[in-house]
Amino acid sequence: MKASGVTILALEQTDTSIDYNKFKYKKPIAIVVGNEVNGMGDDVLKLCDASVEIPMHGIANSLNVTTAVGIVLYKAIKK
Q1: What residues contact 1, with CB distance under 8 A and at least 6 apart?
Q2: What does the pLDDT look like over 39-66, one tens digit per residue?
Q3: CATH number of the domain residue 60 falls in
Q4: How far apart are CA 31 and CA 54, in angstroms?
Q5: What's the predicted TM-score (pTM) here?
Q6: What whole-number distance in Å separates Cα of residue 57 and Cα of residue 67?
Q7: Residue pair 22/64 in contact by the 8 Å Cβ criterion
Q8: What is the pLDDT of residue 50?
Q9: What's the rounded Cα separation, in Å, for the pair 75 and 61?
Q10: How crowded is residue 51: how many other Cβ atoms within 10 Å of its Cβ?
């Protein structure tokens, strides 16, 4: 996919994740998500061009994967 010019974006909370509102979305794009309990493996993260996260305030530190994907897809398509 990278050879075809596709940006590979991880939807994952990491030390280097960018706020999904501040990321510069460039199409074509592939959004990779991990398991709701364990997240994404480091081997997969290394293959991604960048990672974004949805900032959380309060007690919860994550959203349901389906909800999070919907939010980021809307933002990516809107750009």
Answers
A1: 8, 30
A2: 899 999 999 999 999 998 876 667 789 9
A3: 3.40.1280.10
A4: 14
A5: 0.86
A6: 16
A7: no
A8: 97
A9: 20
A10: 21
| H helical segments located in 22-64 | 42-45
Domain around 44? 2-78
Indicate the average pLDDT of the chain: 90
Number of domains making up the chain: 1
Instruction: Pick left, alpha or beta for residue 39 (phi over 0 → left; psi -120 to 50 → alpha; otherwise beta).
Output: left
Q: Which amino acid is at 16?
A: T
Does the structure show a pLDDT above 70 at 11? yes
63: left (phi > 0), else alpha (psi -120 to 50), else beta? beta
Estimate to the nearest angstrom the gap between the alpha carbon of 67 and the chain centroid.
Answer: 12
